[in-house]
Amino acid sequence: MGFEIDYLAIAPELILVATIVMVLVLDFVLPRRAKYFTAIASVLGVTFAALPLLILAVDGGSREMFDGSYTVDTFALVLKGLFIVAGYLVLLMSVSYIEGDRYYQGEYYFLILCSILGSLVMASSRDLIVLFIGLELTTAPLFMLAGWRKGDMKSNEASLKYYILGVLSTALMLFGMSLVFGLTGEVSFDGIREGIGDAAAGDASTALGLAVLLIIVGFGFKVSAVPFHFWAPDTYEGAPTPVTAYLSVNSKAAGFVGMLILMYLALPGASNYWAPALWIMAAASMTIGNLAALRQQNIVRLLAYSSIAQAGFMLVPFAAAAVSGTDLSEAFSATVVYLVIYSIMNLGAFAVVIAGARKTGTGDIDGWAGLGSYDARLGVLAAVFFFSLAGIPPLAGWFAKFVMFRSVMIAGGVSTVALAVIAAVNSVIAFYYYARVVKSIWLDGAPATALGDRADTPAGSLRLALIIAGVLTVLVGIYPTLASVFGDASRVLAAG
Amino acid sequence: MDLLNDWGLTAVVMLPIAGALLMAAIPRAQEEMIKRLGLAVTVVTFLISLALLFSFDFGTTGYQFETNASWISAINANYHIGIDGISLPLLVLSTFVMVLSVIYSWNHWEEPRNPKAFLILMLILATGLNGTFSALDLVLFFIFFEVVLLPMYFMIGIWGDKTVRKIPGFARETETRLYAAIKFFLFTLFGSAFMLLGFLALYFRSDVAGERTFDIPELVAIASNTPEVFAGRFGWLVFGAMFLGFAVKVPMWPLHTWLPDAHTAAPTVGSVLLAAIMLKLGSYGFIRISLPILPEAAREWAPAIAILAVIGIIYGSLACLAQTDLKRLIAFSSVGHMGFVMLGIASLTDVGINASIIGMVAHGLITGLLFFLAGSISHRYHTREMARLGGNMKLMPILGGILAFTAFASLGLPGLAGFWGEFMSLLGAYNPAEGLSLTVFRTAMVLGAIGTVLTAGYMLWMLQKVNLGEPSVEWENHEFHDVDRFEMAAWVPLIILIVLVGIYPRLVLGATNDSVVSLVETAFGPSVTASLGG
Reduced to 3 DSSP states, what percent helix, strand and coil does chain A have, rounded to the nearest 5? Predict the structure, then answer.
């Protein structure tokens, strides 16, 4: 093996690094009015970073570097593809939004590209150190991005809350990881998996339990699962909306991927510790997230609680499989499929929120009354994304819910069926608040002041983001094989 | 007609949604063009379904016009569609009522108008309905079953009843349409979430014969070849899960409470489509999926279903007698009529299931027409309060005449379509499948027979209030125009069919009987037919 570098395998990361440097340099040399070139450079950079992914996917096979610490296999590739597409959509949403503020455009793109780079690293990580670096590279830039609207107190609150809780969770997770290292003497996932059996059997089982729970707590913050969700609604509301979209999709997905590969590849031997914890987190996230979402007036806060509830749904397959002790590979692929579909439709929903907030001038759900009557296209898209989040066929969300239920039914057993029933009841509750947004847009009458000066169309880049997300949401819903490819790819991990 | 084999059924399912996409591209101002497109799409769909009907081979019991293409390979779910004698009448009913609805809509647009959006929703609805009646794969069935919800939600929510009223449990006064739309959706969603769990449970048990499958004919084959696979507690639970999904849709007492609200609040065409076609999705699900795949569980559940069905019949009739709103009365009458349909299914005999299918078709024709009439009446009087409507016969004799005819059909007058479903389902209940409790079913039969008397009671009472007597003084200076040509064009075909099915029930039974007998024989053994003679 050794330490020679496979340049093709890390070409996406290298292209992103080059783009990051270029954005910084461009920001330095460009005159103020031409700063938007940094946006164009970022979008192009991310587009080019996707090309080597295609080459690698066609090439197939698994490429390992640094003694297997950094692996580019089909699983890593599909996740990198997801992170890049999601990052691309967020960039498209950002362009007009950030241009309006007229400050620090270059830095904005620099930070968000760094975060995307972190998530790419994360997908390839196969040891604790790379995992940690990837995760923190994803999160750290977001502390600053959340406070981007510096004149707004809420944005400051968002940033501070996120920062303090984020750092705390990082510290806890690092402590847990160091305990794992101490117990097994290994940082690579393979090494830990082999060493964990002895640790669990010996006197150190308490320490192992503590380590696993600390790691879970750390990841719980990252994916905003109950009871580690308190930062999410305030941060989501205060942060600029494109950043919120990024937080609720890329950063959450990165957290999920990190948690799952760690549990799946390194700690399956300790599942008696983490399985009940995940079960409780799943049930609590679904229920509390949904009940809190019912009472929201602000659409971004509604999406914040909805994303907490969705995190609960995403935890269900893994929790169910682990609790009942069945094969985890099915659950793993179900979670990945859920994650992919969730990313697309949630980004679409946020794009609608950005466009709709511009049009109506408010983030209040009631303020969106009658939007469908003066902007039918945006209204239709809003219905598509929100009903898809609710899991109504034939929109993509149904398949996510379907694979989730399917993996639970594979597991079988009383506690898992109980979780399935909780999930089924919750998906009905969830429908109510998603439908409330659609109801406001289509069923309520428009206020007399609705039209007039607000009748502008969304910027071209935002429109592109809406179209991409909308088309994908409908296509995946009608022909779910498009998404199940991701699930199949994640089975590679099981074989490897 | 070999061509029909490959694309005929797919065209019936997919043509409407293709039409909806095309319509979305036409600017809203081109109203005439939009309406013509809507009519053209529904008429062509209907004609293709007629072509299927005429090239249907009534001599065999298997599925015809089958298409089976790979769809979601990861879970072995396929685009598998096909029809047999059970689904054929319902499919044709669906495409037929859709045409009439477009014709009726032509100059009856409820506020806030927008024919483009309304017709697009209708076409999406058509795809969902036709698809459900054709689907032979559980996942596909589930998708079509759910596709129906969205258009109906918007139809009720946007064009529905705008009366503001106080709804128990709500802090503020709410518009009826908003309450009805969300209630309809939540009830159905609740049921179908459990239905999906049931489907998945079947899928995971189906790997005895090799690969796991969602395919309905394959699952039926597993159930009849190796009955122990879906038997026992497992089957009982799965039947219960699917029961929730289907019973909400039928709707069976006590899961019916969404229906009076949704039917009353929906715009006329929405109520017609709900009553005439959508309610049948639930009872069709019982016949297509629950009974043949889980025959043993069906035996255990049958008495419960029969009891709930009879409660539905009696409760629906009594509730009708307490109504003051014409549309709400018709809505509650659906609860009663669907009770007869379910009683027929619960008997698990070929007579009973034939009864339920002809009952569904008749209810579709009759109640569909009743909702058209109620819509036209409230369109003219701007009220549906029966107390204010008296003497309609003097103001609008043709409309009143059609109303009287339909009411008689609805109360099950022999010679009209409604009679056969009720009569045969009571006959089925008199002699249920072997092993079912005679006491329960014969009591159910007697109570059902009392229900028919009550039905006659409230229908005549409704006629007396609406049609007879002197017109109220408030209408003295009103100019009422009787039935117009669009209404005539939509209603006359229904009237003709009600009479035809009434005097010649073989029109429906001829198609269904062979398939039903084969279904009952595979699921419950051949002894059932013999027991009819005894």
Answer: 80, 0, 15
pLDDT, tens digit (0-9, with 9 covering 90-100), for A423-476 = 988 988 899 899 889 988 888 877 776 554 455 667 788 888 899 999 999 998
Query: Tokens 């699952």 correspond to what residue?
Result: B219
pLDDT digits (tens, 9 = 90+) for A329-380: 888 888 888 999 999 999 999 999 998 888 888 888 888 888 888 888 889 9
Among A373, A387, A424, beta carbon nearest to B193: A424
Q: Note the pLDDT of residue A456.
A: 61
Which candidate from A394, A405, A424 shows the least CB-CB separation from B147?
A: A394
| Kind and range of the H or E run holding B11 | helix B2-24
pLDDT attached to residue A305? 93
Give the closest residue to A222 by CA, choosing from A263, A252, A262, A246.
A252
Amino acid at B309: A
- The CB-side HSE value for A101 (13 A sphere, CA atoms) comes to 17
Q: How big, in percent rounded to 5, are the helix, strand and coil portions of chain B?
A: 75, 5, 20
Query: What ipTM was predicted for this assembly?
Result: 0.85
Q: Nearest C-alpha of chain B: how many angstroms from A406?
A: 6
Which structural domain, as residue segments, surrounds residue B257?
Answer: 2-533
| Number of folded domains that form chain B | 1
Q: Are strands B64-72 and A70-72 parallel, antiparallel or unpaired?
A: unpaired
For residue A397, what is the nearest residue in chain B, using CA coordinates? B143
Q: What residues of chain B score a pLDDT lower than 50?
A: 528-534
Contact A393 B194 (CB under 8 A): no
In whole angstroms, give the CA distance from residue A119 to residue A109: 15
Q: Is the bond preceding A317 in cis, omega lying within 30 degrees of 0?
A: no
How do the domains of chain A map onto residue ranges?
271-496
